[in-house]
Amino acid sequence: MASGVTVAAVGATGAAGQMTLRILEERKFPVRELRAFASERSVGKTVTFRGEPVRIQRIEPAAFKGVEIAFCSAGSAQSKEYAPMLVKAGATVIDKSNAFRMDPDVPLVVPEINPHAVRHHRGIIASPNCTTIVAVMPLKPLHDAGGLRRVIATAYQAVSGAGVNGIADLREQTLAWARGETLAPRHFPHRIAFNLIPAIDRFEPNGYTGEEMKLVNETRKILETPDLPIAATSVRVPVFTCHSVAVTVETETKLAPERARALIERFPGLRLWDDPAQERYPMPIDVEGQDECFVGRIREDLSSPTGLCFWVVGDQLRKGAATNAVQIAELLLG
């Protein structure tokens, strides 16, 4: 196309990178030229964009010249190395790793919640952790209406949140179980097929995992509530796609379940899916492939006079990663 922007996709061969290319196509983002980058072993291979092969280039400063928007879907170490190179070359970087999320000079953005934060970027904009995005989406309308006083969130994280290796672990172990073979974990510390384990990147000194502290700290930053009490638990579950979160909130002003349903139904990016009598409630198998976060099982918290409980499910490869990043890019153009 004659018009549009030059886009770089760093980490283009991974699960999040591949989904980013798909979302760019689906949303008809005005890409004039796509430059794809990945690890050294992938240089010379190709990814497909708009039905055409795009060759993987070597990551070096000269290759970034002319890039206007860059999506970084690599790990934190890679983002810390490559993002400054991209910014120096003139690009605005939308980073999906944990590298810059809590940097006070880097906006952490969910477009439906805090689009104004994009205006203050200095070359890098962070996209939140996938679990944080799914959890914070329904928190925003409840906070605006009732004022959040406390949040308890338990996340049930799909294996694809750990990348292609997590997917392979569950698939291989499930097939081994069907064949009557030993289930040997390769990526996770324990078997994941027919099992639940903590969602671990690391354990912090306070006993929480890094995944849990991301949910705590990132939610506070996005909602601009630095002192909001939040307790989080993250569990890796034998589901391929979609993170689910069980949330309990206390608000300053009591919100009846009917009021909460109305707020959530009107909020962009959310879909109310709450009719237990008809067995209608969010499930990963139904939400996979959707960009909205589905909310259901909204009910009063029996232990608190101003409490609500609910269940939210989101496709963490789409809204939890790629779609959110592309929406940020759309904000930059808009």
Could you characterize what this model shows?
A hairpin with a 6-residue loop joins strand 13 (293-300) and strand 14. This protein has two domains: 5-129 and 321-333, Rossmann fold; 131-316, 2-Layer Sandwich (Dihydrodipicolinate Reductase, domain 2), CATH 3.30.360.10. It has eight helices and 14 strands. The mean pLDDT is 96. The strands form two sheets. A seven-stranded mixed β-sheet has the order 3-4-2-1-5-6-7, with helices on both faces. Strands 9-10-8-11-14-13-12 form a seven-stranded mixed β-sheet. By secondary structure, the protein is an alpha/beta fold. The radius of gyration is 20 Å and the shape is globular. The longest helix has 17 residues, at 130-146. Helix 3 packs parallel to helix 5.
Descriptive terms for the model:
Rossmann fold, Dihydrodipicolinate Reductase, domain 2, 7-stranded mixed beta sheet, 30% helix, globular
Total number of helices: 8
The overall strand count is 14
Give the helices and strands as they follow along the chain: EHEEEEHEEHEHEHEEHEHEEH
The name of the CATH superfamily of the largest domain reads Dihydrodipicolinate Reductase, domain 2
Sheet-strand content, in percent, reads: 15-25%
Helix content: 25-40%
- Give the overall shape: globular
Strand order of the largest sheet: 3-4-2-1-5-6-7
Beginning-to-end CA distance, first to last residue: 19 Å
Structural class: alpha/beta
